[in-house]
């Protein structure tokens, strides 16, 4: 079953010229970054003081309790040592070989770009970028954010500095969503990987796909399995490594 499905996915990707990959935290678990809803995921245990992680990653927490927000964010969402895994490098190769048009990711770790992907739509932003809450919205990179104080302030205007990450209670960037929707609409293959498809509006983007090659590669079942044309319950990093080996050697 598994090898037959890999053969099908390989031929679909070989024929694709505008495939889109839609991914989530399961794409980065092989890079040592825990996902959210698996048994070993970030949401499997309470945050400090018994607070739910979903609160600690929310706009309300950033505003009302910035020290708690940044302590949790720095400890759990920032992984400067993480390296791209074969899922990231495989997708970059598929783009370089003219099969893949775009990566649409819910991840904020920047590993797709680090692996060489050029067209990446980060629906939930990135921990690599920060901005201050002052009038001029000064921009910073992660490397420019000091470890202390825990709550960083803008060296130019003194306002609080925050990550360019979409927090619970915040809207997605309309331009990013529009570009991602346009790519999904145009896709001749939609490959979904490493996501539980639990979170909207991100998961809703899939309904813009109009083709008949919707492939889903996820360790566990998702609400979209029944709508997919191909479902492989296996590690996305291993599947993409095998597909790229067959396509490009
Ligand atoms: N290969 C394939 N699937 C995997 C792998 C892997 N190596 N590792 C984990 N998975 C699967 C898990 O079984 C799970 O179904 O990836 C999925 C990850 O799901 P979530 O933890 O819910 O992560 P995600 O879908 O990205 O969450 C979406 O929720 O909390 C918010 O903003 C956060 O972007 C995140 C959003």
CATH topology of the largest domain: Rossmann fold
User: What structural class do the secondary elements suggest?
Assistant: alpha/beta
What do the pLDDT scores average to?
96
Strand order in space, largest sheet: 3-2-1-7-8-9
Low-confidence stretches: none
The CATH first-level class of the largest domain comes to: Alpha Beta
Can you tell me the CATH architecture of the largest domain?
A: 3-Layer(aba) Sandwich
Number of strands: 9
Estimated radius of gyration: 19 Å
Biggest sheet details: 6 strands, parallel
Order of helical and strand elements: HEHHHHEHEEEEHEEEH
User: Please, how many helices?
Assistant: 8
Fourth-tier CATH superfamily name of the largest domain:
TPP-binding domain
> Which molecules are bound in this entry?
adenosine-5-diphosphoribose
- Structural domains: how many: 2
List keywords for this structure.
2 domains, 9 strands, 249 residues, alpha/beta, 3-stranded antiparallel β-sheet, Rossmann fold, binds adenosine-5-diphosphoribose
Could you walk me through the main structural features you see in this protein, from its secondary elements to its overall organization?
This protein has 249 residues and is α/β, with parallel strands linked by helices. The chain folds into 2 domains: 150 residues, TPP-binding domain (Rossmann fold); 35 residues, no CATH class. A hairpin with a 6-residue loop joins strand 4 and strand 5. Helix 5 runs parallel beside helix 8. The radius of gyration is 19 Å and the shape is globular. It starts with a helix and ends with a helix. Bound molecules: adenosine-5-diphosphoribose (APR). Adenosine-5-diphosphoribose (APR) binds next to helix 8.
């Amino acid at each position: 079953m598994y090898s037959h499905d890999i053969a099908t996915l390989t031929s679909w990707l070989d024929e694709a010229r505008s495939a889109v990959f839609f991914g989530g935290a399961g794409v980065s678990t092989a890079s040592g970054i825990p996902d959210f809803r698996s048994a070993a995921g970030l949401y499997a245990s309470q945050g400090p003081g018994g607070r739910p992680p979903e609160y600690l990653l929310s706009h309300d927490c950033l505003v009302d309790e910035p020290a708690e927000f940044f302590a949790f964010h720095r400890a759990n969402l920032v992984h400067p040592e993480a390296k791209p895994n074969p899922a990231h490098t495989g997708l970059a190769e598929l783009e370089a070989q003219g099969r893949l048009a775009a990566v649409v990711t819910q991840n904020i770790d920047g590993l797709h770009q680090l692996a060489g992907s050029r067209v990446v739509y980060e629906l939930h932003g990135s921990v690599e970028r920060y901005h201050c809450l002052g009038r001029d919205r000064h921009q910073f990179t992660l490397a420019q954010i000091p470890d202390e104080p825990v709550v960083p302030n803008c060296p130019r205007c003194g306002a609080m500095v925050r990550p360019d990450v979409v927090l619970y209670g915040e809207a997605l960037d309309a331009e990013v969503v529009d570009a991602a929707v346009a790519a999904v609409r145009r896709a001749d293959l939609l490959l979904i990987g490493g996501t539980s498809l639990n979170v909207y509006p991100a998961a809703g983007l899939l309904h813009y796909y109009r083709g008949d090659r919707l492939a889903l590669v996820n360790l566990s079942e998702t609400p979209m399995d029944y709508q997919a044309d191909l479902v492989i319950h296996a590690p996305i990093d291993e599947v993409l490594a095998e597909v790229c080996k067959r396509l490009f050697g």
